[in-house]
Amino acid sequence: MKALDIKLNEHFAGKVVRKDLTKLVKGNAIVPIYVLEYLLGQYCATDDEETIIEGVETVKKIISQHFVNRDEAQIIKSTVREKGSHRIIDKISVKLNDREDQYEAYFANLGLKGVPIADAVIREYQKLLSSGVWCILTLGYVSTDERGATPWVIESIKPIQISVSNVNEFKDGRKAFTKEEWIDVLLQTMGLNPDEFTFRSKLLQLARLVPFVENNYNLIELGPKGTGKSHVFSELSPHAMLISGGEVSKAKLFVNNSSGEIGLVGYWDVVAYDEFAGKTKNTDRGLVDIMKNYMANKSFSRGTQVYGASASMVFVGNTDHSVPYMLRHSNLFDALPKDYYDTAFLDRIHAYLPGWEVQKLRNDMFTEDYGFIVDYLAEILKELRKEDRTNEYSKYFELSNSITTRDKTAIVKTFAGLAKVIYPHGEMGEDDVKELLDFAIECRKRVKQQLQKMDETFEEVDFSYTNKSSGQVTTVETLEVLEHGTQKNILVTDESIIPISNTDATTVKQEKKLELLGGQKMIRDNQSGISYDNLFGAYLTGATDIKLIDPYIRLPYQLRNFMEFVKLIGEKKDPEVEVKLHLVTSNNEDYIEGAKDAFEQMTYSFESIGIIFTYEFNDFIHDRSIDLNNGWKVVLGRGLDIWQKTGGWYDMNEYIQEKRLCKACELTFIKN
């Protein structure tokens, strides 16, 4: 096991499970992960391999014998009748039959309707009255001659969720982990491999958990297909309900005027709308008005009654166009249905997650390591909803006075939610607070920027904050605006430096010599539009002796980066001049022979474009830089390895540097 897995088992024994086991036991069962992990938690919550193997077989047996598949419903019914009773796993919902004055159960897979269920069960598990809860129950069969009576009897029933969770024990266990370790544990709990994600990408994944820990939190995420937007809300918690955007009605969501039944917001912590986007979708304008009131005031009224609720609202959907297209021609809410394309409704959104930054899920992005049993974590997150941590940022920072009350509420709720998820024990330093505050402000600013484009009556807001100790003012900008909205190219002539827009840059030809400046360039996690050329290409001009120091030029993608770097040198050099290129790198016994072979082949290849290539291995180097004999040195924070992994040969990002997502890093330009 990895060191992190050992540590997790040590501090949370019996509450963690290996995440690849769900695939082994699921088979053809159409059942959420939290149901499977509930069972795995009974038999496989250990690091002992023999116990795990036995437990997996036990869970497989339980699912094969007791889980109700729709196509086997008649077989199960026959089994119950022949045996007199049988234990099953099915999704149960309950309705009140006021004519008979009794509660009646409905079985989603078995297909039974109107089976009486005891009042005491409903008093204990009121969520059964909503859209359905997965349960383990013993179903009996007693034949009867009584007219209108059903032979089916619910002998015992237990909803699948852990009933008791010690939140203080959870907080104490958190203290044993660093921030980085804890974030990785949470990602593994979500079934993801943290090694495949940058810090910002991890934060985007964890932001999906904020609705589970914050009451009345309104979140939207729009982006491409296949990024797992709805997975968290359908699979990871028994307290969330995922519904199709087309299935929403006033009665289902809030209250049925005819029967008086409370809708989903009265029973669930999170109500998520899948496939929310789509301009042509039919929507109920009256529902939108009720939602606006609920999202702002935490209450709704139908008829003469006013009801309060704490359910968070999540909206997930697909975008129709690329981000640059939307920023230029419309806005980032462009894909929403007509009635939801309403500034009053959208202004109640606390955070807009940039789904276009989330990579499409590949096999290597899933983990086989340990994480919390999701049902256990779900109960902890539910307990954390009771805590208020919205003011913790104010110990170090003060928000700008121009930020409106609604903007501030949105920012502090996102901040508080992430603080509960990542720092449940409450121990946060100034840098930790700043990280979360920056992210929270960016998520709200993304909403406000679109509102300003949709309606010019929305005033400009200064999304900045001041450090109370140093007085330093920080202004937060969204990543897509940095990339596409305000970026400038610099055209340098003999007379002046002229900033020009990206769109004009293609029509203007550079003249004469570029005036180069020293200083730093910062690259943010998930930033795109970055290439070696627009980072440091101009600094290579005129250099005839170049030394690259980078300890990691050995793996295939690192060798690809190096080849692209050499290609850039070839493009910047005078065709009639030879350039010397010397690489200083390190290696180990697993890769050194392959690297030597690659470098020898490169030597002959580079000669054809006038580059004389040499290399050496030095196991003691740590710094990364490009030394040039034209008077410049470029210090590379991450060396040439500035991009996240692409999707491989059939991904255009593999061939276009500007399309790749970056890792956070810093470059420094020094004039010798």
Account of the protein in words:
The protein is of the alpha+beta class and 672 residues long. It contains 23 helices and 26 strands. The strands form seven sheets. The chain has a seven-stranded mixed beta sheet. It has a five-stranded antiparallel beta sheet with strand order 4-3-2-5-6. Strands 8-9-12-7-13 form a five-stranded parallel beta sheet. A hairpin with a 4-residue loop joins strand 18 (488-492) and strand 19 (497-501). Helix 21 (532-540) crosses helix 22 (556-572). The longest helix is centred in the middle third of the chain and has 25 residues, at 430-454.
**Low confidence ranges:** 486-512
Strand content: 15-25%
Q: What is the 3D shape?
A: globular
The number of helices is: 23
